Each structure stands twice: as C-alpha cells, then as structure tokens.
Amino acid sequence: MWLRSFDWSFSPRRADGRPAPLFDRVTGAVDAQVAAYWRDNHDIGHRIETQWPRLRHDLDGKVHVVVGTADSYYLDGAVHDLKTAFRKVGGRAEFIYVPGASYSINEVHARDGDRNAYYREMARAVYVVARPSKVIGER
C-alpha cells in the first residue's frame, strides 16, 4: 500500500485526477510512459546528464551528499548512480559514504563520536555561500 505514495508524489495525473500507477499491482507490468515521466521529471542523475550545460552554473562544485552504506532504503546505490552522472559530464560534487551507517541521521552525520560533526560542516558551507564577505566565526 505504501508504494502508492510514490505514485502520488511522482506520477502524472489521469483524467480523474488520481496518479497513474508506475506498475500494475497485480501483474507487475511497468507502464513505460509513467516510467519515462518519472525519469524525465524526477531523476536527478538523468537531468544532470541531459541538461548539464544549463545546470552547470548552479550545481558544479556545490553538491555535497552524505549517505550510509547500510541504508535500509538502499539510498547509497542511488548516490553511486548520481556520482556516476556527475562524472559523465565532468561535474564536481562531493560524495561521502559512511561505512555501516543506516538511514539514521545520528549515524550518518556523526564523525569521531561527535553526532553533529557533519551538521556543523554543512552549516559552515552554507554560511560561506550566504555571506561570502564574512569570515566564519566573526560577528
């Protein structure tokens, strides 16, 4: 039943306003048109590969992804695919794979016993972009 939430989030709407299912829940047959819609509208790696000249200015060197290698939703696989897309176009992005960490934010963002290590790094990176003329730590 929870798979329908993905249809509601990512699928085009049918004439009755409900989302078109990605696949038939009885036969398992995939609707190729819906799959293409998902790819074209929501697959970040595909968009990077097909629209890089337009996206380069906004993304190159600005993407930083942290994921655990024991993620219960296997998100690390999708992150590897995203990394491959960046490499194909010659884009720069940082990918950190935390060994043994699951989807838990506490596990993914911790380093050397500090549960907030990556949070602080992210805050510093955002601060530099938001206030490039300020020195971090200065008021």
Structure description:
The chain has 139 residues and is mainly alpha-helical. It has a domain at 1-42. Helices cover 48% and strands 9% of the residues. It has helices at 4-10, 32-42, 44-59, 75-89, 105-108, 117-130, and strands at 63-68, 93-98. It has a two-stranded parallel sheet with strand order 1-2. The longest helix has 16 residues, at 44-59. The radius of gyration is 19 Å and the shape is globular. The model has no long low-confidence stretch (mean pLDDT 87).
What is the arithmetic mean of pLDDT? 87
SSE string, helix = H, strand = E? HHHEHEHH
**What level of helicity do the residues show?**
40-55%
Anisotropy-based shape: globular
Share of β-strand residues:
5-15%
Structural class: mainly alpha
Strand order of the largest sheet: 1-2
Termini separation (Å)? 51 Å
Q: Low-confidence spans: pLDDT under 50, at least 5 residues? A: none
Rg over C-alpha atoms, rounded to the nearest angstrom: 19 Å
Largest sheet: 2 strands, parallel
* Count of helical regions: 6
Query: How many strand units?
Result: 2
Helices and strands, with pairings:
Blueprint: H1 4-10, H2 32-42, H3 44-59, E1 63-68, H4 75-89, E2 93-98, H5 105-108, H6 117-130
Helix pairs in contact: 3-4
